[in-house]
Amino acid sequence: MTTTLVEPLDPALLGSSTEVHSRSIDRFARAHDASHYLLIPDAVLSPADAEGVARAFGAVRAAGRSMTFRSGGTSLSGQGVSGDILVDTRSHFREIVVEDGGASVRVGPGATVRQVNTRLARYRRKLGPDPASEIACTIGGVVANNSSGMACGITENSYQTIESMRIVLPSGTILDTGDPEAGALLRAAEPAVVDGLLALRERLLASPEHVAFLRQQFSMKNTMGYGLNALLDFDDPVRILEHLIIGSEGTLAFVAEARFRTIEIRPAIATGLLVFETLSAAMTALPALAELGLATIELLDAASLRVAQSLSDVPATIAEIDVQGHAALLVEVHASDDAGLAAASISAQSHFESLPLAIAPRLTTDAAERAALWHVRKGLYTAVAGARPSGTTALLEDIVVPVPRLLATCERLIELFAEHGYEGSVIFGHAKDGNVHFLLNERFDDPASVARYRRFTDDLVALVLSQQGSLKAEHGTGRIMAPFVRRQYGDALTDMMWEIKRLLDPDLILNPGVVLSDDPDSYLDDLKRVPTVESEVDRCVECGYCEPTCPSKSITLTPRQRIVIRRDMAWAEEQGDTALLQDLKADYDYDGVQTCAVDGMCGVACPVDINTGDLVRRLRAEESSKIEDTVWDAAAKGWGAVTRVGGTALTFAAAMPAPLVKGVTRVGRAILGDDTVPLYDGGLPRGGTKAPTAQNPADARAVFFGACIGTMFGAEGHGEGSRDAVRALLDRAGIAVVIPEDTGGMCCGTPWKSKGHLAGYDRMTERVLSSLWEASRHGELPVVCDAASCTEGLHTMLAKSVAEYPEYAKLVIEDATTYIAREVLPRVTVSAKLDSVAVHPTCSTTALGATGALTEIAAAVATEVFVPDGWGCCAFAGDRGMLHPELTASATAVESAEVRAADADRGGFDAFVSANRTCEIGMTRATGQPYRHVVEVLEELTRG
Length: 944
Hints:
It is a single chain. By secondary structure, this protein is α/β, with parallel strands linked by helices. It contains 39 helices and 25 strands. Helix content is 45%, strand content 12%. Strand 24, helix 38 and strand 25 form a beta-alpha-beta unit. The protein is globular and about 90 Å long.
């Protein structure tokens, strides 16, 4: 259903470079963010550059509309939703330019914090802001919310580390604040703004009472209202404007680029957990701990510790506590090198031992132990939000008070949970900053629950303000606290904020209802409804952490969007809106189901462990016909013959003119459908080789499971393929292996599982696991597979079957990369290293934890190992790249551009490697370079 705006935007004003998305599925998919608010935009704009944003301002103003910027969608306070025009700033604006040897970085608002820090890591630098959502939150949101995090406090946030910005004012003025002539340019273009800001500064300075109040408020983390401290900290109108925009949540201007001063990475780290008998004891110890200069001091209250004890991998130090009124502080010491860490740790440990602790303190540098402790801290959100009742919304709130008042605040907050009936709520957060978070589960489709939420909010506001705190520390004012700005700041300072708003945005077109609101009940408007849908995804909190790694994010939908559209369809059905329901369904098959790569990367990133591919596979199963199921079940029975025929067909096709074969497949796709007939192109390889012959030597040390894709797809160029390369390497290292009977007729099951053909999948699972059980001598020998995606598929098979066949738990299935890195590399000699190699990690090596082994083998064969910063799943996904080549093209666009640039810089890489044949085909198609399995290169370079 195409939306017709009541006041259409003038295309002449908007310009041709800005995309306008008006399909229902586009509007509803982009409407949802991590907050508990939901507004459906009339249209979504995707401008390509700052000039496009300036034109959008003009078009929206002329139409009498309003607009809201939206990037990563991780904001929690409702500042990224709109019922009018939503402006997508993530599709473009992704530039990252490192300058001055890493001391500075220029970034577009669409790049994520993790992407920027990945680029900076080689310089041992990072961004100052360190939000927990760094995997998905973008620079636009970090600047707009003045985000901080666990370590940066108020000294390394955006306000303190921004060097300059390129901004677009609602008037259309574009200004680079780093331009030496910025002051003169601003006065020439916006004289009223310059004069107005200076007048406001003068008026504020004339009130010592207000100056003192603002100094106190901004001595803490504080994202409530506008940053009036900018009027105190600067006297240059450009700097005042720049720092007012920071934290303004897209209500004053658009930041098209931000230039940051970066922070040195201190890589030497020790972590410890200090467990106290009471919250009071922990808070009493806090000031002295802060004086030690600890990088982080994270609070976990008693409820948090109880939740932590429910985690499957809880550290023994927590598991053994008989939690009563205990509290814990998770602390870290950071240093530039091991010597500095040792000195700092000795000092810290000495202090820890003087504290009244329930458990003896210990700092650890062990990576696994440190990860386990942080998993407890970060797993709180997972445990509480993931276990919430279906239909409820998880609210993650944050407040800040002066550190000496933190104890009284937390104690009263716990009382409020009990008084208002919020069970299972936990308090955790950044204790050294006086900044704590708490979780509530609430339903907003029930008037009684909304009334409870209102009463709780009134009590919370009274509590925080009575403690001289701020109602928002990190998450931004948004919609949730906009009505309470006046209560926190008083009339004079709030009126000054309104003056700033009208000075910069006189037509009030930017993000109305956010930061400032004169409606005392506006925080109760537009609360998100969360209808129950499918069990696989009901626990989704719509955080968006899954989106950056999704291969279809730039072409159709992300995992979050696939889930929320299911919720929107359920809501439309509940409301009897059949037109909307049919409209969403019509586009969901392609956007939501067919272009999902089911690669599982979303599950790796998801804080509540949702693999959206599980939902998609089930939907495909429900949509598949009985004929298709019968055909695929038959294929499972005779899979060896099927792969041989497929390989022969590819060999035949490779000998024919590519346009002829492509034309034939196009006809087939037109008749039978794009999701049934693969599209052939000249980039596909010839067919592969015959499956290895069965053998069972008495001295075998492993079972070799040769992936069937080696029969279907031949090796790149004149290579021998990964199956033969692995066999040769094992022989060379003196490692005898079992090869199961009928290995050519076995498969990891992914073709059936990904398409939803469950009967064939069950048949193949039974055959494969029973064969591997016997071949491995009942779990005595590890099973080694030469294709990472197939290894992952075998792991999935095994996990599915252990409940029915508990003996299979003894089976150990390992990817060839990890086995060869550990067992073969020490036993072979590389004759002459290559100069450089480009590596494509895969979604499966990530899921298996095998990417380190992949790069270790690459380092054994080449002096330089290049892993693109922008690597991601290639989305070839078995046959998905042949059914929908546009998906692979979109998924690999960023990585392939980076590889081509790096290849040109070096005058050509000596090899391009990965760990899975279909991924290699996808990357070869994307880059035009011959990708091969890394074990093939290792085998060639270790021949005698």
